[in-house]
Amino acid sequence: MLDARKSKEPPAAGPPLGLPAQVWACLFDLDGVLTETATLHARAWKTAFDAFLRERQGPAFIPFDAVDDYDRYVDGKPRQDGARAFLAARGLSLPEGHEGDPPQAETIAGLAERKDEIFLRLLRAEGGRAYAGSVRYLEAVRHAGLRTAVVSSSRHCAQILEAARLTSLFEARVDGLTAAREHLAGKPAPDTYLAAARGLGVEPAHGAVFEDALAGVEAGRAGRFGFVVGVDRRGEAAELRRHGADVVVPDLAWLLRTP
After folding, report:
1. pTM of the predicted structure, to 2 decimals
2. CATH number for the domain that contains residue 181
């Protein structure tokens, strides 16, 4: 879902958004920034990884940590990149396999598919809830006339947006399906954010990136976006700044307090 209209002029003045004046467009990560689904992803990875580790290493295996390991190795990345990074950190490897490998396949692709299957079960059971502060901020951004895009590594971005009732607030969407179709590198590469900016007709210097993942913050900085907002849901403000965030907030609504 890309909108090819061009934005040559800045939007009219609106309510304060805590952004520099040169920002004309806002590009938002999904899980952990707009919706609470990051916790579902972390739980799905834990279930998939722990089962794999138990099979390989027996009952003495060290479980996947749904906070530290999730943040360090998989958050914000395409599924196969995350699976590969975590296994490498544990000194383990699997054949790459192919996209579409079944969940039982002993490949990186199969393990990623196993995680995806678990995530979808959790999403159907628990839904995709939006953070109230994020909804307030999105509405203020739209009211101010700024362009909006959602940029996610998830293949289920559209379903999550629909479940959280956020679809109508975005003009463009670049997700895991887009990345696969257009051969875009995943975060921390800036490719998906740059594709969204092109879809909005906005130069990166006029865009703000909103991310809770360290890899996503790195992507915003690597893409030379005009402003990078780190959203600290897990007490890692210093790390978000270290990876390139210009400002770190616990919730997007905090930006509405910034004159």
Report:
1. 0.79
2. 3.40.50.1000
Integer Cα distance of 2 and 8 in angstroms: 17
Q: Tens digit of pLDDT for each residue in 193-221?
A: 999 999 999 999 999 999 999 999 999 99
> CB count, 10 Å around CB of 187?
28
Both 238 and 161 in a single domain? yes
Catalytic-residue membership of 29: yes
DSSP β-ladder status, 247-249 and 147-151: unpaired
In a shared domain, residues 205 and 146: yes
Q: What domain range includes position 213?
A: 25-37+129-257
Q: Which of 31, 69, 116, 232 is flagged as catalytic?
A: 31
CA distance 90 to 112: 17
Which of the following is catalytic: 3, 29, 75, 251? 29
